[in-house]
């Protein structure tokens, strides 16, 4: 009886390791590139304010979330990002080609999203960052990218990455 249990445990471990390695490889391949001097660039948010990545991430890890109202996977990741925001993690969304400011604001209200968001109607910000897919989540600390991931993300997976970035960087 012990051998089958050990066999399945080993298979589960190998599968988890393979999934982790593939995920890391895909994230590396799709990684965005933070433009030079972007940390100091003022970004207008839908709420009428302005922020910079340097200010947002000073002494702590901030989340920059590239998303689109048209993105199916974003509909699953956005609630996790909202939970991070509600837990006190600084979040800046970048609404990629999702319409005008009023359309994006209406979409966010309808979906219960209240994190600060910069509208990117023509995709200029996303092109500067070389964002290849949505959603893309970039962790920034002291104005510099420290981690990124693409695709679906869970609250606890993202929360763990923010926690680790706060301690390592």
TrEMBL record:
Task: Name the source's superkingdom.
Answer: Bacteria
Q: Which organism is it from?
A: Neisseria dentiae
What is the name listed in the Swiss-Prot or TrEMBL entry for this protein? Protein disulfide oxidoreductase
One term of GO molecular function? oxidoreductase activity
The residue ranges of the Thioredoxin domain are: 32-169
Report the Pfam families cross-referenced here.
Answer: AhpC-TSA
Entry-linked SUPFAM superfamilies = Thioredoxin-like
